[in-house]
Predict the structure.
Amino acid sequence: MANPFQATYHRADALICGCLLKTFEPYLAGLSDKCWRFLLPFLAVGGLWIYVRFVFGGFYQDRWYFYTLAYLAPAALLVVSYKRYPPFPALLEGRFIRWIGKNSYGIYLWHFPLVLFFARLAPVVNAIFLITFYLLAAVAAGVITTKTLERYFLNLRASIAP
């Protein structure tokens, strides 16, 4: 049985983290060099430490905050890349990433039920094949949901309340 902290409705912190990154992007651009000199090492070391300690070290004890930290680590590293590696944010705005972003809500909704399904296959299927097929299935289910249900209801909402 999966941990209840992994359920989609418990992972609003991941959505909030992504929204906060985008919301604070204009403020990051306006930070002084002195502020960046303080922030960059803190965020880089903090993000890497979280990855090493909690993400790669395993989610032992299944505490809710380990999952939150798993989202804060890449957020911290993305902020570091924003200042240190100017081409990197351009990669994040490429066509493929935008396509994933447009379908991300559907992918997000399907990822946990599919994790439960594919976890049952783990003892008998090669891990690389299983992960690859899981990712493809999650993206496919999310795209189908976005193109059918989500688009239908967004169009319905636009026709009722333009």
Q: What stands out?
A: Residues 127-160 form the longest helix (34 residues).
